[in-house]
Task: structure prediction
Amino acid sequence: MDAGAPETGVEVGCVESVPAGVERPTVAAKAPVHARAGDLVPLEIVVRHGAGETVTLPGDLPRLVVGEVRVADDGTFGKGAPPKSAPVPGDPAHATTALSVPFVVLSTSTPRKTFTLPAVRVVVLRRGGGELAVCTAPQEVSIDQPIAETPDPHVRENPPTRPQVTRDERMLTLATWALVALLVGVAAALFVVWLRSRPKPEPPPPPPEPSWKKALAIIAARAPTSSAASSRPRPTTTASPTRSASTSAPRSRSTGSR
Result:
């Protein structure tokens, strides 16, 4: 294949959609002329549209692949910068929006090779609702290998080996928790020692004895005990014979009279 022949790859069509009676936005695209294989090739797009309209890129842009040319995909329109809008000086009815779409060319050709960046569809959201689509013009870029400008390239030796250390996440976690448990245990032991070494308050005095207990104690002290009462001698009375005779005589008389 001729080194100057452009890379055609898979034909990808870009269809414009502009309603009748609507002014078509003006699209200008620019890409670098030379690049290296594997490097980003930014496609700069400037759109002149009506004021109040929003310019964006289609959601299927990362799937745009033409042979060895594709959009660099990082989940945000292929590393595309966010749109930057600005009013047109002296023309309040129009504004301009700048977009950037990075392509990458995965060329395996040793000599310089020319590739074509495909047309990119640009979506314009109208102010009153609805949308329209316009396309950029294809851009050609010459791709060299990374060592194309190196005189007499040769294979470099491998760098010296470096020691590899494998971290055992499980053991590291266990050691961390063990250290935490040790620190907590030491803190708890110091707290217990402090509690035991601090001066203890004196116990409060006993409560006063109730008055009714004092009264019962006084009464018990003054009253004779049962043993003392039992040890006292009981007095005995003996009747005299004369008194007994005198007392019995009237009874006999009374009996005889009856």
